[in-house]
Amino acid sequence: MSSRQRLGRWGEAMAARHLEAKGYEIVIRNWRCSQGEIDLVARAGQVWVFVEVKTRRGQEMGTPEEGVTAAKARKLLALAQAYVAAYELDVDWRIDLVAVELDKKGRFIRCEHLEDVVLGW
User: What is the pTM of this model?
Assistant: First the structure.
């Protein structure tokens, strides 16, 4: 596993702990289909939440929030729809982002949960 992959997995674990502390139930991690992968599938009460986790060390690649481009938002929407169809769910759902940020030396800066990140795309 590359250092980039290890950083991503660490960020996903941090995001899962953050969401669980807020009362979310993590249903599955790294759900894959032919269209790609959803980092975390969670539930907040009756609402299903598809979570993109963006982890950054330093800001050379921009902030985690800047990683959700219009193209990424379209892909996340397609993935969420694929999950709902695969499990024949008739539920309310949304797509959230958890931004995890470290400084250049790898020291933790923040873990922030943003709801409904694909609204308006």
Answer: 0.93
